[in-house]
Amino acid sequence: MTAFTVALVLVVAAAGLLRWRRPAWYWLTFGVTLAALRVLIRYASVMDACGLTVPPSRWRLALARIADRPAPDSRVPRILRLRPTRTGLVLRLKLRPGQDAFDVAAASDRLRHSFSMYGVTSREVRSGVVELRLTGYDVLKRVQMPAKTDPRPMRVPVALREDGSVHYRDYRAVPHALTLGATESGKSVYQRNLVAGLAPMDVALVGIDCKQGVELFPLARRFSALADNPDTAAELLDALVDHMQGVYQLIRAEQRISVAVPDADIAADIWDLPEELRPVPVVVLVDEVAELALFANKEEEKRRDRIITALVRLAQLGRAAGIYLEICGQRFGSELGKGITMLRAQLTGRTAHRVNDETSANMAFGDISPDAVLAAIQIPAELRGVAIAGDFTGGWHRIRAPHTSLRQAVNVCNKHADRTPALPVLEPFRPAVAAPSAPRVPLSKAAPVTA
Ligand SMILES: Nc1ncnc2c1ncn2[C@@H]1O[C@H](COP(=O)(O)OP(=O)(O)OP(=O)(O)O)[C@@H](O)[C@H]1O
Q1: Shared-domain flag, residues 180 and 283
Q2: Domain range enclosing 285
Q3: Is 337 helix (H, G, I), strand (E, B) or coil?
Q4: Less packed terminus of the chain by CB within 10 Å, N or C?
Q5: What are 84's strand-pairing partners?
Q6: Single pTM value for the model
Q7: pLDDT band at 300, cuts 50/70/90?
Q8: Where is ATP bound in this sequence (predicted)?
Q9: ipTM exceeding 0.95?
Q10: Is residue 247 part of a domain?
């Protein structure tokens, strides 16, 4: 008996310690079983308390009256499946007649308290079937990406969502994106994760980093072209527009051939082209975009207009040619001059890290989802890297990318340097990589760094 008591105390102490220090391990060892039991035992009473029941059907009431039995209980949504995951539980429910997915979504906070879970989100799987994702602990506190994700071309598992699922940046579904955030909010870490995710893929990376290349140049071995100042950026973007026109010519030439062949598929974008003809897709990463839109004199204003026009053209026409934009900055609104709101309308993927004011949050989500604006304003300053990600469907999620250091991203880029495609139009912008033995120069003697 004493040995049993000691063992029990030790197990409870171990569980408590794990729950406090290592919530992910606690969940896998004890939490998942306890939570599943809690949900199953409390299910009917919680549904009743949360107003998620419907009265018994008329014929059951009539039968009870005829048989002189007490009136039957209200009916709860039927559990179709309860599946444990690495971070929580997934509960699939069949709704009763008269219930809808909105009822469940509206009750999610009450369900969270009642089931003692960290978070509850819901989505409609199909008509009458709702999936509840119950999260066991704060998965965004220390982000650990699952070892296995669902790999597909041009789809990067870039962050974790608060419901424990993986957040993908899918370039084919959402070609162009805007990432906003105040300084030190986590934009560069997010962008680094994207580059590290894209590095092993068959894709050309093009970078424009007007912070003198501080963010992207260390990753240069995996980049086909880099620009670190607005003048080079203007030339690079013009070259990309030329590349885009070349790809369109290729698609047209292929269409001319397939039109003559009965029943042949007709290519509408690069993904419809035969693999041997398909040009490599290009992801253009722009850091601190405001630097490209600012000007102090007439010359710079002309350059600015040239840059914004090229970006708008790439955003409007680039998708079919396999050119995708990933634009990053602190603010991105009409205050940056003409053409900016037109460009923003094309950047349908939106990610907002912590912002300093409501106006900045509106720049990210004002035209997409008012709820997401509110969520972006509420990101706490101490949780760097937490962001709200949404798209043109109005749906949004709280996400956080894993804390990838610059060293880790550089290692991934160096490892996959041999996958860097050489595009002829981008050759003049190919970054020069310094030899490891290059001498270090103090600031007072340093010459400006060029691409
Ligand atoms: N996902 C994350 N998880 C944990 N810490 C993070 C995360 N993202 C960022 N941080 C922390 O926040 C700091 C600032 O991040 P980052 O450099 O990405 O911000 P930024 O928005 O690019 O800032 P700036 O605009 O000044 O360059 C990082 O040094 C890192 O310590």
Answers
A1: yes
A2: 155-433
A3: coil
A4: N
A5: 89
A6: 0.84
A7: confident
A8: 181-188
A9: yes
A10: yes
